[in-house]
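Lecture 7 notes: from sequence to structure.

We start with a single chain of 139 residues. Read the sequence below before looking at the structure.
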Amino acid sequence: MYTFESRVRFSEADHTELLTLPGLVNYFQDCSTFQSEDIGLGTEVLKAKKKAWILSYWQIVIERLPALGERITAGTFATEFKGLYGNRNFVLDDARGNRLAYANSVWVFMDMEKGRPARPEPEDVLPYGSEPALEMEYE
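Now the structure, written as tokens:
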């Protein structure tokens, strides 16, 4: 699992001083972007190939939203690549390791020049590896 640590910022919190839903989604998306950058498959690499991973579906479960200033860890991992699609799970934990939120997502590999889905090459997916999917009720 790829992870990064952070702290809930004022700009990410609502009037109740809790992380907003858009803030949570941003942590998940940033986590997958950081992983892609760190393994050499970031935005510039994809732009040069005229390819992109486009989010197709989210299923997010929230146990508790973290509070302003709370230390958190966001994590992500690929669970499967099949055909044009990639499946990815996400987690958000507090400083004690308690699970605050988790998610399943489905991504489509796109040929941006042709404007249609494309089958990723092995070099587009192998660096991510894959792990068993989270135990959760999948829709």
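The mean pLDDT is 97. Keep this in mind for problem set 3.
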